[in-house]
Amino acid sequence: MPTSIFEHRPTDRTHVTEASAASADAAKTALTHAALEMGFDVVRVTRPDAIGEAGNRLMTFLSEGRHGEMAWMETNADRRRDPRVLWPEVRSVIMLGFNYGPDTNPLDVLSTPGRAAISVYAKGRDYHDVMKKKLKELAGLVERTTGEAVKVFVDTAPLMEKPLAAAAGLGWQGKHTNLVSREAGSWLFLGAILTAAELAPDAPEVDHCGSCSRCLDVCPTNAFPGPYQLDARRCIAYLTIEHKGHIAPEFRIPMKNRVFGCDDCLAVCPWNKFAAASSEMKFAATEATANPPLDELLQLDDATFRTRYAGTPVKRTGRDRVVRNALIAAGNSGDASLIPLVMSLLSDASPLVRAMSVWAVRRLAEPEVVSAAKIASYPRETDEAVRNEWHIEIPQ
Ligand code: B12
Ligand code: SF4
Ligand code: SF4
Question: Whole-model pTM above 0.90?
Fold first, then answer.
């Protein structure tokens, strides 16, 4: 049983309040020390009702369909927009940030078309797993020191982590919509602990974007309808990771060799100049995630994919979608040596893969090779979307 600091409550009301406040302060100090010790870079507190317009803006985002196929955002919108609906006992929200800053410029790989660009957040161990363990440990500490109930969330629960983190003062939501910190730039993972304890809230951070618009201007797919607003359906992170169907032709060439996620809007932020590389070894790239050559990805079968990407965010997306994305990158590579591998995927079991192999062959190969490939594979193709790929216009 955890030892509660409220075990010996004084009877005098004034003392209760003062004692509770002092205990809450002590709990917050202990929490902060422990969090920093575990490798978190920042820990601050806010109230569950501190996110202002964010809940209403979420509803607008959903009503405009900007979440695309992420139906889970819609089904739990009532809880997501207000932590008090998610958990009525919550009185304080502890927000934590973990620096996952890269040690090289993540945009460099975009000029190496033979390699797959895998975004920084996906290069190491899945941050859900890494952070959840630490958050659970901290939650135990909060429970022991305050005697109040706690709940832990990292990404998987319906919670608006960015507005909550901004309200707690971890940073501000930049025009790219992510949280920017003066210390860590755009490279902070966020995590949350909800508690029934009354902890002193911290002051919010103010917006330091000013007249800058670098993130908006760099986006290859025009995913920002305006500053501070994202249409996920146009975002390469959504298209390569969340989107289960075929990727629309208009996005394929702008995707270049981005195979898993996208870092462009984050990487160009001038506030990154104060950021340091993450010291968490679990977030370091492995051989499989350090922008692997496209030919390796094109040869992945399901079993090899699962083994290679076990424990990383890439595994969640599954082999078929990763190979779909790699075929788009192959089609953009201009590398004719990839043609045999691309052609071998014309008979893959997955229509997602077959469709993008048609697109990639048509982008890479000479007309006579394309004709021969079509004669061999079109008549036996039963999937309408794949058949259609032989007819669409291919910009060279
Ligand atoms: C859904 C989701 C996505 C979706 C949609 C992203 C989005 N911007 O909504 C997709 C798949 C595209 C995505 C991509 C990425 N994601 Co994501 N994602 C989430 C998730 C699960 C929910 C976000 C959400 O609620 N969106 C709904 C919209 C409505 O909320 P919002 O972004 O806060 O929108 C605000 C603004 O638009 C603003 N607003 C709207 N109109 C106006 C007008 C004015 C005038 C103003 C001032 C403001 C304003 O108000 C809204 C509410 O605050 C969170 C985890 C979580 N539970 O919070 C992670 C999370 C946001 N993702 C994260 C990351 C790392 C990424 C990527 C960088 C991954 C990558 N490299 O590929 C990209 C970044 C793309 C980008 N530019 O946002 C991190 C961000 C960390 C940080 N420092 O902010 C989070 C917090 C996960 C985590 N726990 O660390 N993600
Ligand atoms: S992650 Fe890439 S595609 Fe998505 S909004 Fe940022 S720059 Fe645009
Ligand atoms: S790039 Fe500029 S506009 Fe975008 S988040 Fe950073 S400071 Fe704000």
Answer: yes
